[in-house]
Amino acid sequence: MAAMNFLFRKPRFPIVIDTGSGLIGAKSWAACEKQLATITFADMAPRDVIDATVEAFSLFPEHMVFSPLTFKKRWTKAAIITLYNSQKGPGRPAYPTNSLGNKSLEKVFGDIVELLTAPRKVDGIVEHKIK
């Protein structure tokens, strides 16, 4: 895998990356690099990245470049939850869509990162994430 590069600035951690086949959450650059090393991208289309400030970034897999230059600047609670629930993968619980008015955008994002970085159960066996 190519080394990660950054155009203008780095996203702030934790981050969520839509790989096209699922989501990964990372709380550090080391965890992000380890997880991206295991991903084979189906195509080289830009991927959505959400950082700790809930700002949108793009990942360009061909060059492993993270860039804040994207048409979508900020994410909404509903959009983040829809993305997670549609691509969470087996063994992960769905994020509830009720009582969203009581939760801040940052709280929803933090909850999603915790769900993505927590060990998950697949067929009754706990799978441990790369730290």
Structure in a nutshell:
With 131 residues, the protein is an alpha+beta fold. The protein has 3 helices and 8 strands.
Helix percentage: 25-40%
Strands ordered across the widest β-sheet? 1-6-5-4-2-3
Q: Compute the number of helices.
A: 3
- What overall form do the CA principal axes indicate? globular
Amino-to-carboxy terminus distance: 18 Å
Structural class: alpha+beta
Estimated radius of gyration: 14 Å
Give unreliable regions as ranges. Answer: none
Run of helices and strands: EEEHEEEHHEE
Oligomer: single chain
Note the beta-strand portion.
15-25%
Task: Return the average pLDDT rounded to an integer.
Answer: 89
Largest sheet: 6 strands, mixed
Number of strands: 8
Describe the structure.
The chain has 131 residues and is of the alpha+beta class. It has three helices and eight strands, in the order βββαβββααββ. Strands 1-6-5-4-2-3 form a six-stranded mixed sheet, with helices on both faces. It has a two-stranded antiparallel ribbon with strand order 7-8. A hairpin with a 4-residue loop joins strand 5 and strand 6. Helix 2 runs parallel beside helix 3. The longest helix is centred in the last third of the chain and has 13 residues. The two termini are 18 Å apart.
